[in-house]
Task: structure prediction
Amino acid sequence: MDSAGAIVASIQGACRDLGLEVPSEQASRHIIGLGLTEAIAHLLPSLPEADYPKLVDRYRHHFLSQDADIPLFDGAERIVRDLHQAGFLLGVATGKSRRGLNRVLEQTGLGMYFHSTRCADECFSKPHPEMLEQLMDELGATRSRTLMIGDTSHDLQMAQNAGVAALAVSYGAHPRDELLAHAPLACLDQMGELEQWLLANA
Result:
């Protein structure tokens, strides 16, 4: 989903509501993909943990006000459907909560295509490999036959920590140079390039 802008606006809005220093867009984008607790600790290291629930509440208020309007990237639904129909086992490893992911999968109609999912409130947050390890265990997938596709450095670090290949896409949250620093198999700039890469290599 093309959600980075909404996430940044929600982070900044939540900080503004609580009278906290409003982080830059770059800083806000950097924590996308982490669980909320880890994201807050990284973004606002001086904020007492006792205040985390207030910030999370305000973040959710801002995010949910626009959640239903966040679009899929062009072609995303078709690519996911085609991969599913071709027999690939598809999983999700996300910094979202279980409730948040279930809501998104229902709103988009994509839930039927994914065989397994893991969320940050069920496992260690990225870049810890637990989400990927649990997905591979559940699906019976070996490391050599697993590919992590991600738009953040946290995704690519998780893949490295899990010992699996990674493919980066630069049209999401983190800039291309940050993604390339983690030596993905390739870094693709458009959804159409992702489809072509998968057809040639998957």
